[in-house]
Amino acid sequence: MSPTAPRNLLSNYLPQRARKWVPSPMGLGLAFTFHLWYGLSMFIGGLTAWAYGKFRAKEADLYTFPVAAGIITGESLMGIFLILLPLIVAFFAGNL
Q1: What's the N-to-C CA distance of the chain in angstroms?
Q2: Which site among 18, 92, 94, 96 is 20 to 30 Å from 53 CA-CA?
Q3: Distance between CA atoms of 43 and 36, rounded to whole angstroms?
Q4: SS3 category, 24
């Protein structure tokens, strides 16, 4: 049986108001491939965006996506920098 079969059965036979609480197969699949830190970061980011959208919906529509993209880009660039940092230090110390 497919791992998504129970989810599809639940979403077909549950009442309409309960279907929104059935997790998506994509979300469950991502949970098994990411480390805890990534999932926690996504949860905190989603919770922050949801709360900001509740209080300032017009601004949230305008700023949520660009801010999230900037944070992801900054995290990626910082990861590259941290990987290259030992090489940069070794180069300037004359050990390379």
Answers
A1: 55
A2: 18
A3: 10
A4: coil
